[in-house]
Design goal:
This protein has eight helices and twelve strands. It is of the alpha/beta class. Helix 6 links the parallel strand 9 and strand 10.
Amino acid sequence: MNPKLLAKKVIHRFSKFINKKTDFLVQNKKKRIKKCYICGEEFENFYKYRINKELDLAFKYFEIVGSDIENFGCYYCNCNDRDRHLFMYFDKLNIWDKFKNARILHFAPEKPMENKIEQLLPVEYIKCDLHPKDNWRKIDITKIDFEADYFDILICNHVIEHIPDHLQALKEISRVLKKTGFAILQTPYSKLLYNHFEDPNINTDALRLTFYGQEDHVRIVSKRQFVDELSLYFTLNIVKNENLFSNEECYRFGVNNKEDLIMVFNSKMKE
């Protein structure tokens, strides 16, 4: 065979091999790229909840379902995994439409969610916290200073685990929520525990950090007990993450694929 022709064939085959290898690497790199669901920016990884992993023992020991502490924050818009997950749920379930012309009470509002809701021009949007900032209103969730049947929507995203008398908080949420209204009541929980894990002697920041995973948490929530408690006041609609999103989507957008949407409707108290 002509040496030049042989060389061309070798180069051609080698080029095809290189192109296939490059395509494979590019495709796999794309699979590894993380993307913020809210701002749309792409990067290799989200930043972690905290650098010191020794402080996350409680999360791992109790197998806490809630924040994805390994894929927590976006470098660009600074949203966290809980923000992204709610946006994903609300988009998929067309919940945003319900915010238009509604009265909304939002505890400890997350900035991305706050901005989105304001764009929807609700009739009334109350942003609140026990320790308010910016234009938030000071409201104690265990003693909400609004009349009964006032709000169409109430959002309480990762708040219940901070409230000592959380049953009173649930009762108050039910009281101020219209019978046709709904609430989003996300909280980190453990499926391992039969009952909530809480002890009055765990009463310092250091002890709460060690046993509850965060200085201002007052318990590790048992999913079983929390569902039972919610059932006393509400009709539950727990939307399974696995029914809406693939594991690949959860990986890419940096959300916990085990965290379902805890959506409740207000019917129990007013029947």
